[in-house]
Each structure stands twice: as C-alpha cells, then as structure tokens.
Design goal:
single chain, 232 residues, alpha/beta, 8-stranded parallel sheet
C-alpha cells in the first residue's frame, strides 16, 4: 500500500512521457495528484516522490490540509467553488480551475483585494455539453473571458474541462481537441490580462489522450491514490 502510491506515480509519469511524444504540441503536462478525500499521510507519500501540485475540490478540506502540509505544495481548486467560500481560499490556492461565471469572478476579485493577493484562474468549459456538469458552453467562453479580463486582481491563465465518463478514452479525444482549438482561438485575440498557456484536461481514465492533445495539466486521483470512499 505504502509503496503503491510511489509506483503508481512512476507509472503515470512514464505514460505521460509516452503520450507527450505523440503530441504535436510538444507539451509534457504537469501531473496534479488529486488528493480529495485522501489523508495527509498519502499526500506526503506523493510529495516524497517530488509531486508538488495537488488537486482538491472542497474548501474545508483544503483549509485542513493547508494547515499541516509543507508550504511549497501548490493546491489546485478543481471543484465547483461557491461564492460564499471564496474568502477562505483565495490566499491559499495556487490556481482555481473552475471559474464559469462573471459573478464568481467578481467575488474572487473582491476577496483578492481584501487579502492583497492576485488570483490565477482557469475558465471551466463544458465542451461535451453535459447537463450534469458545471462550466460554460464553448460559444459563451470568449464573451465571459472579455468581462473577467477587466478585473485587475483576477488573471486568466487558460481553460479547463471535465470530459464525460467513458469506457474508451479515445471517445474523449474530440473534446480535448475542441478545448485546445478554443484556447488557440482565444489566445489569438490577444486580450489584455488573458493568457492561454494552461490547458487542464484529462483524469485517470483519459489522461494519456488529453496529454496527446496538448494538456499542460492532467488531474489524476484514482490512478495514484486508489478508489475514493465518500462515505467516511
Ligand atoms: C476527482 C477529480 C479528478 C480526478 O479523478 P480520477 O478519475 O480519480 O482521476 C479530476 N478532476 C476533477 C475536476 C475532479 O473532481
């Protein structure tokens, strides 16, 4: 069990290297270890292999882990963020992956000013148009970005998507390609305070496909830490 986290990471990194070789974009994505629901002892196992980027989706859990974890860890907020909870984490997270409304961005701006920090964010796009998912539709993305770009303490770094749950990861290739194409289109607009360097896509089931489509971050939980138990 102890060793398996390290072995899993080695395995994922090998596969990422292989996938990156097949990518026309020359990217080799950074691995975010998605540690939600997992104890700090397991994070530390991953930390010891050199992992510094960890993904979490609950504000309370980030706060608890932030308290006790080494300060060079970068926490990524990858889950839906409620506006009333922004104030607890703006000064504790490295990147918020899940901005999908101007209302949320306005709260991030306000709380960033209060805490005297700059917030880096990704825009979450629901590329596959799944009803169950957060994120905005592709065709609405540019307009939202133009509005958020006006906020001086919120900096858009790129796009994020959560692809559908599929048994054949190749079925998600078109969505990853669509997100990559969208990020190129938006990058070409040269909007002030907007950069499209970051593409957060791919999870345990499909990170190799995402890596070959230009992902710069992949978010892998189960493939590193094993299945999650939400009943605890
Ligand atoms: C939980 C989660 C992941 C990791 O999922 P796995 O399938 O366990 O790798 C990735 N991204 C987001 C947004 C998540 O909520």
């Amino acid at each position: 069990m102890q060793d398996s986290i390290k072995e899993n990471i080695k395995n994922v990194e090998l596969k990422l290297d292989e996938a990156a070789k097949k990518s026309p974009y020359g990217n080799n994505p950074t691995l975010i270890a998605v540690s939600k629901t997992k104890p700090v002892s397991m994070l530390m196992e991953a930390y010891e292999t050199g992992i510094r980027d960890f993904g979490e989706n609950h504000v309370q859990e980030i706060l608890e882990k932030y308290e006790v974890c080494p300060k060079d860890i970068r926490f990524h907020m990858i889950g839906h963020l409620q506006k009333n909870k922004v104030k607890y984490i703006v000064d504790k997270v490295f990147l918020i992956h899940s901005v999908d409304s101007l209302a949320l961005a306005l709260v991030i701006e306000k709380e960033s000013v209060k805490k005297n920090v700059e917030s880096n964010v990704l825009i979450e796009v629901n590329v596959a148009r799944e009803e169950s998912k957060f994120g905005i539709f592709k065709e609405d993305t540019l307009a939202l970005i133009k509005e958020i770009a006006k906020l001086p303490h919120v900096h858009i770094k790129g796009l994020m998507t959560i692809a559908p749950y599929v048994t054949n990861p190749e079925d998600n290739r078109r969505y990853f390609e669509e997100l990559k194409a969208l990020s190129i289109d938006i990058g070409n607009q040269n909007i002030d305070n907007v950069c499209m360097d970051v593409l957060s896509m791919g999870m345990t089931g499909d990170y190799e496909v995402a890596a070959s489509c230009g992902a710069t971050y992949v978010r892998v939980g189960t493939g590193i830490f094993g299945e999650r138990n939400y009943n605890k």
